[in-house]
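Q: Here's a chain of 367 amino acids. Please give me its 3D structure as C-alpha cells.
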Amino acid sequence: MSNIYHHKNNLFAKWAIIVLSGFTLFTSCNKKEEINKEEVVKTKSTESITYQTEPILLIQPEYNISIPGELEPSEQVSLYAKVEGFIEKLHLDIGDYVKKGQLMATLDAPELNQKYVSDKSAEQKIYSDYQYAKKNYERLQHAAKTEGAVAELELERAKSAMNSAESAYNASKAQTGHSQQMQNYLKIVAPFSGIITERNVSEGALVGPGSGQPIFKLAQENNLKLRIALPEKHVASIRDSMNVSFTVNSQPGHTFNAMLSRSSKLINRSDRAVILEFDVENEEQQLNGGEYAQVKLNLQRKSPTFWVSEKNILNTQSGSYILIEEKNEIREIPIKEGIRLDDKIEVFGDFKKGDMVIIRPTERMLQ
C-alpha cells in the first residue's frame, strides 16, 4: 500500500514539474515577443522618410512655336459712289494696275449739272447785288466828307446793306462750290497705286450711297502685311525686333522672312490673343494677298521663369501641384502651367530659387 502511494506522489511531482516548465517557457516567450514589438515600434518612430528630389530650374530658354497667319495687302479699299448716278464709262477692269489719281470710272447725273448751273447763276446775281451795294456805300462815304452832305443814318444804312449783300454772296459762293464738288464725285479716281481685285458693276448701272455694293476693290500688291494672332500665354515673349519665317502653300519649300512692325498690345477678348503685323516686301510679286501662311516664331521670356520636369507635377481633381521638401516637411504649392519645352514645363506659383522638388509625387505623400 505504501508503495502505491509513493508511486502516485512521484507521478504527481513529475506532472507538476512539466506544467511549471511549460508556464515558465510561455512566460518567457511572451516577454521576448513584447520586447521585440517595443524594438519595432521604436524603429518606426525614429526612422525618417526620405524622398528623391531635384532643384527647381530658374532659366530663360528660347523656344519655337508654329502658328497660322494670313497675308493681306498693306492697303486695300472698296470704292463706292458718293452721289447717285449711272455708270457712264468704266475705264478699267479687274486685274488692271492703276496709279494714284488715275481715272477709273465716270458717272452721269444730269440733275447735279442742272443744280450747279442754277447755283452758279444765283451766285452771279447775288454778286451783282453785292457790287451795287458796295459802290453805293463807297459813293455815300465819299460824299460824307463834305459836312452836312449825307446824313450819318443814311451812311450807316448803306453800310449795313453792303454787309448783308456780302454775306449773301459768300453763302451763294459756298453753295456753288458744294455743287461743283458734288460734280467732282462723278469721277472715281484711284486713292493709291495698286491692282483692281474686284469690279462689281457694268456700264449703265445705277450706283450711289444706298446701293451697298462697291464699284471697285483696290489693293496694293507691292507691299503686304502678315497678320498672326499670338496666344495669350506667349504675349510676354514679344520683342520689338522680332523676326519670323513663314511658308505658303503656293510655293512649297520656299521660306520667307519678315520683321515685326505693329502690335495691337491688348488681348482680344474673343480669342485671348494679341494681333501682330509684319511688313513683307513683295516687289517681285512672288506672294499674293489673301494667302494663308505657316509662321515660325523664335520666342524668349523677358526674364527667367521657373521650370520643372513634367513627371514632377501632381495632377489631382482639385488642380495641379508641385511638392516641395523643406526642413523635413512637404509643402503643397498650387501651380499654373505655362509653355512646354521638350519634357520641361514652365510653372508659376509661390516658388523661390533653390526649392527642392519631389520627383514623381503622389497624393499619399500628403497623408
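Q: Can you summarize the key feature?
A: Confidence is low (pLDDT under 50) at residues 1-9, 22-47.
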